[in-house]
Amino acid sequence: MEEKLVIYWDTSAILSALFKDVHSQEAWNWSRREGLHLLSSLAAAETYAVINRIHRERNLSEILVKAALEAFEQGPWHSINMNPDNDQIKRLGSKWPLRGADLWHLAMTCTLTAALPEIRLLTFDQRLGIAARGEKIKA
After folding, report:
1. Domain boundaries, the chain
2. Class for domain 6-134, per CATH?
3. Chain segment 92-127, per-residue pLDDT in tens
4. What CA–CA distance (Å, rounded) separates 81 from 94?
5. Per-residue DSSP letter, 34
6. Contact 34/3 with Cβ under 8 angstroms?
7. Does the reported pTM lie above 0.85?
8. Which backbone phi and psi does 38 adopt, to 5 degrees?
């Protein structure tokens, strides 16, 4: 029996799916796969912050910013509104040298693992990927 695909997307993966970079092809390939694609409120906030900063700084034309917003809102993601376990944050924070948001994403994935052991963390952040694999999470 084939294992169900459950993907928790961090912000780096979402942005690669929305804006062309060296990881975009891989992000697009993952986005087309059947399964449950999870988006946390933190990843949504970070993504909107980046898109709106790009718009304010006029780094892309208005039409491309609008297209990125539409692609984000119509993407394969299912929003989850929950927080990682505080004990996970404390444990992982003392073990891995991560920035705050990356620690949060790792703790969220570890928290979700209890209910969804097949979960995978899709990230293009090297330190977060190393930490996830160190916690036996597919990344």
Report:
1. 6-134
2. alpha beta
3. 999 999 999 999 999 999 999 999 999 999 999 999
4. 25
5. S
6. no
7. yes
8. -100, 140
Residue 125 and residue 16: Cα distance in Å, rounded?
Answer: 11
Tens of pLDDT, residues 35-44 = 999 999 999 9
Distance CA 38, CA 59 (A): 28
- Degrees (nearest 5) of the Cα angle 90, 103, 40? 115
**C-alpha–C-alpha distance, residues 88 and 100, integer Å:** 13
Residue 110, both tokens: 């570890």
Handedness of CA 72, 81, 6, 46 (dihedral sign): positive
Amino acid at 125: D
- For the chain, what's the residue count? 139
Beta strands in 13-76 (DSSP E): 36-40
Write the single-letter amino acid at 78: H
